[in-house]
UniProtKB/TrEMBL annotation:
Name the record gives this protein: Carbohydrate ABC transporter membrane protein 1 (CUT1 family)
Lineage: Bacteria, Bacillati, Bacillota, Clostridia, Lachnospirales
Species, as recorded: Hungatella effluvii
PANTHER family xref list: ABC TRANSPORTER PERMEASE PROTEIN (PTHR30193), INNER MEMBRANE ABC TRANSPORTER PERMEASE PROTEIN YCJO (PTHR30193:SF37)
Presence of the UniProt keyword Metal-binding in the record: no
Family: Belongs to the binding-protein-dependent transport system permease family.
Length: 311
């Protein structure tokens, strides 16, 4: 019997690997192999068609010594991320807390706040380009009607204003997602904790700051880390904003003075433009990968708190 059982287990042990084989094959072919090949060509000077020329770490050195636009794009990305992440996290927490105990119309408010997250990026870029358009934008029309402006302001032609608009785009788009995550986390908090605090005479503000916020620490940590990763990969918002009407206004990549040029946008232009430099673009992609890893580790350690246990 033992031999028969061992034989049956031996035969059954092959099936999990066979079922996993299609996924593993597809993952290696369409994900792992391109990543490894991209690492290889980052050490070459290659445009994707001609002969590869091995240059070692020259592409990596050129990023920091001969390409000021890379450092500019990296600085822009960090600035946009530094402003958008805390605003979105705080607003998401606040809106979730306000909607958590609301009675009538709760589903409607949640749905309305979540709509921007499921809106296509192209539509979002179109909406904000139209709102802040110099000639026909509703923002200028409203400010002129209120008397705040005497003439239309070229929002997308200003370096500071263009950054502010991108931050508003990011907050508006992801606020519903953050709200939903916080609402889901709040449902896991036992109602007995709130009842005990109410019996002790704690105010709503103290309940929020002393109970809700500390018990949502792990959720906040998750949102911060994912925000850092997503923020450093920012591409759609500035790229789509400076298309259409906006591109007619400044006529250059990255907005006025390249103030909206992000690292991924820079990578896209260098790797897939008419003068394609795939090797250089691959080096940029792996440099960004290392930067994302560093930010993620630092963000995780900072969000753990002084106790170092993250509880």
């Amino acid at each position: 019997m033992n031999k028969k059982k061992k034989s049956a287990l031996h035969k059954a042990g092959k099936w999990p690997y066979l079922f996993c084989l299609p996924f593993l094959s597809a993952y290696f072919l369409f994900s792992m192999f391109p990543m490894l090949y991209s690492l290889k060509i980052s050490f070459y000077d290659w445009n994707g068609f001609g002969t590869k020329t091995f240059v070692g770490i020259k592409n990596y050195l050129d990023l920091f010594t001969k390409d000021p636009l890379f450092l500019k794009s990296l600085g822009n990305t960090i600035i946009l991320m530094a402003f958008s992440t805390p605003i979105t996290v705080l607003l998401g927490l606040g809106v979730a807390y306000l909607l958590f105990d609301i009675g009538r119309g709760k589903r409607i408010y949640q749905t309305v706040n979540f709509f921007p997250y499921i809106t296509t990026p192209v539509a979002i870029g179109f909406i904000f380009s139209y709102l802040f358009d110099w000639q026909s934008g509703y923002v200028n029309k409203l400010l002129i009607w209120l008397g705040a402006l005497n003439e239309p302001f070229f929002w997308l032609g200003s370096e500071i204003a263009s950054k502010v608009i991108i931050v508003i785009m990011i907050v508006w788009r992801y606020l519903g997602y953050y709200m939903t995550i916080y609402l889901a986390a709040m449902t896991s908090i036992s109602s007995e904790v709130y009842e005990a605090a109410a019996v002790d005479g704690a105010s709503n503000f103290k309940i929020f700051t002393k109970i809700t916020v500390p018990m949502l620490r792990n959720t906040t940590r998750f949102l911060i880390i994912t925000s850092l990763i997503g923020g450093l990969q920012m591409f759609e918002e500035p790229k789509l904003l400076f298309s259409g009407w906006a591109s007619l206004g400044n006529g250059q990549t990255g907005g006025p003075g390249h103030t909206a040029l992000t690292t991924v946008w820079k990578f896209f232009n260098d790797a897939f433009s008419q003068d394609s430099r795939l090797g250089y673009g691959s080096a940029m992609a792996y440099t960004l990968f290392v930067i994302i890893m560093l930010f993620s580790v630092v963000g995780f350690r900072l969000s753990r708190g002084k106790d170092g246990k993250g509880e």
